[in-house]
């Protein structure tokens, strides 16, 4: 006799709609923010829709992958966890075989101009490993030696490989999300406090030992001290946000995207949103992310097992941490660092892997304890 298939409920449509709304806004804003640069760039064939076409293609691929992931039972990921971990390590090391980009080696370049950023996979692989392992460990998670140190070592190893690529921002995201998952799993508060202190100290050390990171930190404190150098990008971002006012200058009417903000369709796209759509546009984006976080936490709480709960918390945490960091950087609330705004910033591999993770999250929402 055939085994009965695991019946699933309805997908969280509100969560799905929130994700797709953010993706749709991203497509529109990537075109708006990049059109001027693309139109006047030989590398973009003087085509104002160059980045729009590429981003739209990645959206289609990512959406298909999300739908496929949403249909597959998330429990099947358990048996492939070790495989994903090994492949991710290989990919993280493979980046050193390719040319650097502004001193950083973060990408594997593919034929046709496409590229993959393995660090985008590493964030979710660490979450997957922790969700599987913590479920098996049970109450041992409250023991610092057996329940905390192993996860710090594994997460630290992946974060270390990412750090070698000159990518402190994503390495930080990995460690912050690790702490979030450990806290959600029931680790003792004093253990979490100790981990926060250790991660914070590591962040300070890795900032101080790299001169360019130290310059970024100093410029963050007073960007007007070097307005043409390290403080330039932040000043231009603040000018964009300030000139947008309450209602904004109008979609497509940004001035700062005209070679003032470098690559405005990437990490600083939120400042273009502020200039064109104003305070209302910025608040709308923030509310969408808050709405996403709420539905993600709701999905985690309603999951039918520990594995699903921690996996949902980790996936939600990755998006939440990146969104918070990106918006904080653009508004001058923390030092400039290269973290894209999820679903909205231009980028192929980041969007695809984020949407695959969303498919897993949506699948968890279909399997609840109720």
From TrEMBL:
EC main group: transferase
Pathway note: Cell wall biogenesis; peptidoglycan biosynthesis
Q: Which residues cross the membrane?
A: 12-31, 51-69, 81-98, 110-131, 143-162, 168-185, 192-209, 268-294, 306-331, 343-364
Could you tell me what reaction this enzyme catalyses? [GlcNAc-(1->4)-Mur2Ac(oyl-L-Ala-gamma-D-Glu-L-Lys-D-Ala-D-Ala)](n)-di-trans,octa-cis-undecaprenyl diphosphate + beta-D-GlcNAc-(1->4)-Mur2Ac(oyl-L-Ala-gamma-D-Glu-L-Lys-D-Ala-D-Ala)-di-trans,octa-cis-undecaprenyl diphosphate = [GlcNAc-(1->4)-Mur2Ac(oyl-L-Ala-gamma-D-Glu-L-Lys-D-Ala-D-Ala)](n+1)-di-trans,octa-cis-undecaprenyl diphosphate + di-trans,octa-cis-undecaprenyl diphosphate + H(+)
Summarize the protein's role. Peptidoglycan polymerase that is essential for cell division.
Regarding protein family, the annotation reads:
Belongs to the SEDS family. FtsW subfamily.
Name this polypeptide is given: Probable peptidoglycan glycosyltransferase FtsW
């Amino acid at each position: 006799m055939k085994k009965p298939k695991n019946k699933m409920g309805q997908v969280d449509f509100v969560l799905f709609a929130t994700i797709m709304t953010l993706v749709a806004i991203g497509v529109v804003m990537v075109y708006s923010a990049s059109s001027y640069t693309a139109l006047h760039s030989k590398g973009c064939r003087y085509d104002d829709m160059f980045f729009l076409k590429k981003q739209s293609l990645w959206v289609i691929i990512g959406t298909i992958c999300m739908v496929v992931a949403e249909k597959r039972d998330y429990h099947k990921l358990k048996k492939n966890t070790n495989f994903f971990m090994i492949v991710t390590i290989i990919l993280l090391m493979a980046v050193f075989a390719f040319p650097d980009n502004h001193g950083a080696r973060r990408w594997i370049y593919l034929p046709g101009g496409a590229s993959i950023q393995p660090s985008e996979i590493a964030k979710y692989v660490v979450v997957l490993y922790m969700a599987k392992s913590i479920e098996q460990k049970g109450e041992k998670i409250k023991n610092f030696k057996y329940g905390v140190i192993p996860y710090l070592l594994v997460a630290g190893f992946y974060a270390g490989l990412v750090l070698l690529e000159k990518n402190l921002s994503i390495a930080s995201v990995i460690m912050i999300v690790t702490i979030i998952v450990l806290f959600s799993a029931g680790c003792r508060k004093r253990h979490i406090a100790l981990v926060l202190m250790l991660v914070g100290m590591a962040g300070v050390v890795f900032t101080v030992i790299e001169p360019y990171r130290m310059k970024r930190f100093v410029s963050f404190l007073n960007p007007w001290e070097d307005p043409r150098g390290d403080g330039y990008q932040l000043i231009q971002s603040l000018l964009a946000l300030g000139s947008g006012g309450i209602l904004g200058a109008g979609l497509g009417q940004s001035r700062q995207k005209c070679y003032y903000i470098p690559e405005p369709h990437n990490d600083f796209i939120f400042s273009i949103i502020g200039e064109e759509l104003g305070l209302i546009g910025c608040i709308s984006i923030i509310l969408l992310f808050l709405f996403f976080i709420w539905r993600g936490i709701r999905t985690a709480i309603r999951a039918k097992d520990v594995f699903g709960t921690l996996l949902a918390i980790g996936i939600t945490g990755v998006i939440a941490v990146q969104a918070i960091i990106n918006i904080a950087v653009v508004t001058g609330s923390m030092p400039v660092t290269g973290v894209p705004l999820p679903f909205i910033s231009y980028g192929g591999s980041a969007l695809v892997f984020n949407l695959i993770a969303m498919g897993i999250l949506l699948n968890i929402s279909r399997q609840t304890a109720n």
